[in-house]
C-alpha cells in the first residue's frame, strides 16, 4: 500500500516537473500571451489589451524596423516595456521630440535598437534612455487577442515619418 502511494506520488511529481519544463521552454523560446499596460503605444495598443508575443525572432536576429517588441526596461530590469523599433544598428534616427524646433539625429550603435512608443507625447522611450541593447528584447508582438473587436495583426505606425532611410 505504501509502495503504491509513493509510486503514484513520485510519478505525479515526475510528470509535473516534465510538463513544467515543457511549458517553460514553450514560453521562453516560442512565445506567450502578454497584457500591455500604459498609454505609450496608443492608438495601436490600448491599456489592458492582450497580445501574443513570439520569441523566435529575437533568437534569429530577425527583428525589423516597424516591429513592436517586448523589452526588459533599461530603467527597471524587473519590468517589461512594449515599444516599436524605429532603428536598427547603424541606422540614423531622429533623437529629438516631435515638438522640438531643431531636430537632432544620431546613429544607433552596434548591437542596439532605437525604440519609441506610438504615442510620442506620452512615452518614455529611447529619446529618454538612449539606444537599447538587442539582448534586452524578449519577443515580437504578432497580433492582438483582446479586445475581440480588434483581434488580428497590428496596424502600421502612426509615426511612419520618424523612420529615416539615410
UniProtKB/TrEMBL annotation:
The keyword Hydrolase applies. Residues 16-97, 103-146 form the Peptidase S26 domain. It comes from the Eukaryota. Its main location: mitochondrion. Its EC number is 3.4.21.-. The active site is at 40, 83. GO terms for biological process: protein processing involved in protein targeting to mitochondrion; signal peptide processing. InterPro entries: LexA/Signal_pep-like_sf (IPR036286), Mito_IMP1_subunit (IPR052064), Pept_S26A_signal_pept_1 (IPR000223), Peptidase_S26 (IPR019533). Transmembrane segments: none annotated. It is found in: Mitochondrion inner membrane. One of its GO terms (molecular function) is serine-type endopeptidase activity. Keywords: Hydrolase, Membrane, Mitochondrion, Mitochondrion inner membrane, Protease. Pfam families: Peptidase_S26 (PF10502). One of its GO terms (cellular component) is mitochondrial inner membrane peptidase complex. Heterodimer of 2 subunits, IMMPL1 and IMMPL2. Belongs to the peptidase S26 family. IMP1 subfamily. This is Mitochondrial inner membrane protease subunit. It comes from Tricholaema leucomelas (pied barbet).
Amino acid at each position: 500500500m505504501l509502495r503504491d502511494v509513493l509510486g503514484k506520488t513520485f510519478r505525479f511529481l515526475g510528470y509535473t516537473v516534465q510538463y513544467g519544463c515543457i511549458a517553460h521552454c514553450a514560453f521562453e523560446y516560442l512565445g506567450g500571451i502578454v497584457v500591455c499596460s500604459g498609454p505609450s503605444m496608443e492608438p495601436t495598443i490600448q491599456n489592458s489589451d492582450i497580445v501574443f508575443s513570439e520569441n523566435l525572432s529575437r533568437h534569429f536576429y530577425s527583428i525589423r524596423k516597424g516591429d513592436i517588441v517586448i523589452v526588459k526596461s533599461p530603467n527597471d530590469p524587473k519590468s517589461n516595456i512594449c515599444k516599436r523599433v524605429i532603428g536598427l544598428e547603424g541606422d540614423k534616427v531622429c533623437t529629438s521630440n516631435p515638438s522640438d524646433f531643431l531636430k537632432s539625429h544620431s546613429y544607433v550603435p552596434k548591437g542596439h535598437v532605437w525604440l519609441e512608443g506610438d504615442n510620442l507625447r506620452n512615452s518614455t522611450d529611447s529619446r529618454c534612455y538612449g539606444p537599447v541593447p538587442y539582448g534586452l528584447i524578449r519577443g515580437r508582438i504578432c497580433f492582438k487577442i483582446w479586445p475581440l473587436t480588434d483581434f488580428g495583426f497590428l496596424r502600421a505606425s502612426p509615426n511612419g515619418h520618424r523612420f529615416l532611410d539615410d
